[in-house]
Amino acid sequence: MEGRIKRLELERARPAHSGPDADTVAEWARYWVEAGMEAPRASAAALEFLEYCEATGQAPTFESLTKLAELPYI
Predict the structure, then answer these.
(1) What phi and psi values does residue 10 have, to the nearest 5 degrees?
(2) Are 48 and 29 within 8 A, CB to CB?
(3) CB-side exposure of 3: number of CA atoms within 13 Å?
(4) Which of 23, 27, 50, 72 is deepest in the core (most CB within 10 A)?
(5) CB 25 within 8 A of CB 47
(6) How far are the Cα atoms of 12, 38, 46 from residue 19, in angstroms, in the given order?
(7) At CB < 8 A and 24+ separation, what contacts does 28-32 make?
(8) What CA–CA distance (Å, rounded) separates 40 from 56?
(9) Which residues contact 50 (CB under 8 A, 6 or more apart)?
């Protein structure tokens, strides 16, 4: 998991990558933290979710989060 967090942080640090702003990531991470997840993992999950929304052109809503949760992981 730490490698995944590092990868996401490195991708986020690239100047060409606009990505979600830190306030939006923190806002979404708060939901995972309130559900009992550790803060670093919650931030990584929030960032991944927001990047998924950007990549698919969806608005970051709980409905979008539900769609992401239903996707099969390989």
Answers:
(1) -65, -45
(2) no
(3) 0
(4) 50
(5) yes
(6) 7, 22, 12
(7) 28/60
(8) 24
(9) 19, 20, 24, 25, 28, 60
Cα gap 34→12, rounded to integer Å: 24
Please provide the DSSP assignment of 5-59 as one string: HHHHHHHHHSTT-----HHHHHHHHHHHHHTT--HHHHHHHHHHHHHHHHHHT--
How far from the centroid of its chain's Cα atoms is residue 26's Cα?
A: 10
Query: Which amino acid is present at 71?
Result: L
Q: 19 CB contacts (<8 Å, ≥6 apart)?
A: 11, 12, 47, 50, 51, 54
Domain ranges of the chain: 2-14+21-70
Whether the model clears a pTM of 0.70, i.e. scores above it, the answer is no
pLDDT digits (tens, 9 = 90+) for 2-52: 777 777 777 766 655 567 889 999 999 999 999 999 999 999 999 999 998
